[in-house]
Amino acid sequence: xxxxxxxxxxxxxxxxxxxxxxxxxxxxxxxxxxxxxxxxxxxxxxxxxxxxxxxxxxxxxxxxxxxxxxxxxxxxxxxxxxxxxxxxxxxxxxxxxxxxxxxxxxxxxxxxxxxxxxxxxxxxxxxxxxxxxxxxxxxxxxxxxxxxxxxxxxxxxxxxxxxxxxxxxxxxxxxxxxxxxxxxxxxxxxxxxxxxxxxxxxxxxxxxxxxxxxxxxxxxxxxxxxxxxxxxxxxxxxxxxxxxxxxxxxxxxxxxxxxxxxxxxxxxxxxxxxxxxxxxxxxxxxxxxxxxxxxxxxxxxxxxxxxxxxxxxxxxxxxxxxxxxxxxxxxxxxxxxxxxxxxxxxxxxxxxxxxxxxxxxxxxxxxxxxxxxxxxxxxxxxxxxxxxxxxxxxxxxxxxxxxxxxxxxxxxxxxxxxxxxxxxxxxxxxxxxxxxxxxxxxxxxxxxxxxxxxxxxxxxxxxxxxxxxxxxxxxxxxxxxxxxxxxxxxxxxxxxxxxxxxxxxxxxxxxxxxxxxxxxxxxxxxxxxxxxxxxxxxxxxxxxxxxxxxxxxxxxxxxxxxxxxxxxxxxxxxxxxxxxxxxxxxxxxxxxxxxxxxxxxxxxxxxxxxxxxxxxxxxxxxxxxxxxxxxxxxxxxxxxxxxxxxxxxxxxxxxxxxxxxxxxxxxxxxxxxxxxxxxxxxxxxxxxxxxxxxxxxxxxxxxxxxxxxxxxxxxxxx
Length: 718
What we know:
With about 725 residues, this protein is of the alpha/beta class. Helix content is about 40%, strand content about 15%.
C-alpha cells in the first residue's frame, strides 16, 4: 500500500527516528512511503531508504498556513494514489485530516504526548485509529478527550536490535581518566526532562566521593536559556567539570555503549521512553521517574529502578545501587534485554502498525441509516445481508429510530443498533449535534443512506464520515458518492439494491427476514389460545388500519365488516390486528359485524405480530407495515392498493396477490383524496377480496405454520 506520513520537521528526535524506523521497514516489505515535512537533517537518510519526501510548510501553526496546505496535500494524495494518511503531530494533523477527508482515504494519528484537552489538540483523536505508545497515554486520552476505547491501539515504539547490540550482562564501562563511571541522560533539552534533578543527583554522588560523570546528550529545540540556567546550577554546586555537554548525537548506539547507567528523571508524564528501551537493549541499567509510561518500561527491581519524580536524593541512591551492586546490575540488565526482545523489537511495532493500516484500508467501519417507517425497515433486511457479505469482518452499525428498533434488535448482520429517538427531545438542534458528536467519536469510514433524507445526508457529513453513499435527491452536496435515481420504477428492495450496486456491493437476493425471539412465538400462541381458536382451524388475519397520516390507503370499515361475516360463514376464523391507537376501529368493526371476529388490536408488539401473522393461512392488508411483515414470514397475503403504486411498494414474496384499481388520478401519493370519491379503494369490492382470499386458501390448504424466517436466519452466515 502507499502510506503518507505527516511530521513537522525531520530533525533529530524520538518521533522523527520513529518515522525513519517505520519507513525503512515498510519499504523493505515492498510498500510505498511518502513523508511530508518542512525538511531537516534526516531527509537524505529517508530518501536513501527508498522513500519519497515532499517539502511543505506543515510545521507552521497559523490557521492560514494550515488551510493553505490542504489543497496541496489533497492533490498529492490523489495524484500518487495514497491509500492512507498517518499524522504524527498536531499541526500537520489539521491539514492532513481535511485533505484525507476530501480525498476519501483513511486518516490515522499517533499521539506522542499528554496533550492538554485543548481544541487545538483534539484533531489527534480524530483518527480512524489513534495509535499510542503506552497504556498510560491511552488511559489519559480516553479520560481527557472521551476517546472511545475501541479506537485506541497501544503500539510501543520498537528498537532495531541489529543496531543496538547487547554488550553483555557483566559489562562495566569506565573512562580511562581516573576510572570515572559515566551516567547518561538522553533527550531534548527541556525543563520537563528533569536535567536539573540529574545535576543535583550528580552533586550528591560526588559528595559521597563516587567517581561519576554526567553525560548530557541532546539540545534545546530552538532558542532557549535552559542550558545557561543548568550550567549556572552546576557551577553553584561545584560539579561543572563533571558534566559533558555532548549536544545532538546521531550515533546513539555508540553513545549508549560508553555509559554505565542511564537516568530519565522526567518531572512531567511522558508517553514513552525511547532512550530507556534502547539502553536496555544495549545492556545499560536504567533509573527513571515513577511517572507516566516509565513504569510500563521499567519494572522496579527487575528491569531497572524507579524513583519518585523530582527527588535528586532518591535518584542518586538508585544510581549508586546500580553502580555498586553487581548482582542487582546483572539481574536487571539480563531481564531488561529479554523484555526488549519480546515486547519492544522493531518488527513487532511494524507488524502491529501494518495491521492497523490494513484494517483501515480493507475493513471500513460502516453506518447504515434507516431511521423510520416500519415497512421500509423490514425491507432493509436484504440490504443489510448484502452489506455484511461484502464486508464480513467490518464493524457495521445501524442508525435506527426508536419506532423501528425492534425490527433490527436481533439482526445478525449488524454489530450494534444506534438508536436515534426524537421523542427524547433530539429534535432540538443542540441535541442533534450531541448525537452527531457521538457518531463522530466512532469514526465511521462509510455511510450507506437507506433513509435518504436531508437530515441523514447532512448528519453523515457533519459526523465526518469520509465516504457517503446515497441517492442524490435531498442535500446531495453532502454526499461524495451520490447516485442518481433510476429512471424506471423499481420494487422497494430492488430500489435499495440499485444504490448498493453503485457502491460496489453485490445484492444477496430479495428474500426478506425477521428475527423474532422464542418469547415472541410463545406470545402469539398464547393469544390464539386465549381467543379459543380450535387447533388446525383456518385463520385469516386482517389489518384494518395503517399509517394515521395515510387514511387514503384504508379500505372502508363497512366492507371489512362484510368480509368478516362472509369468511365466518365459510367456517374461517378471522383475527383482526392493529396498533393500539386503532382500537376504536376494532370496536366499530364489532358493532358492524354479526360473526364477532377475534379483535387483537393493540395486543401485540411488533415481533409478536409477525409471529401471529405467520400462524395465519392468509393475511389481508392495505399498503402498510404488516404487509411487509407477512412477506417476511412467508404468509400468503392479499394486498389492497389505492393511492400508491404497487410496482414500487409491493414487497418480494412468492405468495402475494395485489388488488389494484387504477383510476384517472392513480397513483396520487396523497394522504387526502383530492377528488373526495376515494374511487381507487372503493372500486375494490367485498366479492373480489373474498374470491381472492378463497383462492389463496385453496392453494395453501396443506400449508402448516412454520418457523421459515427464523430457520433461514439460523442457516444464513453472518
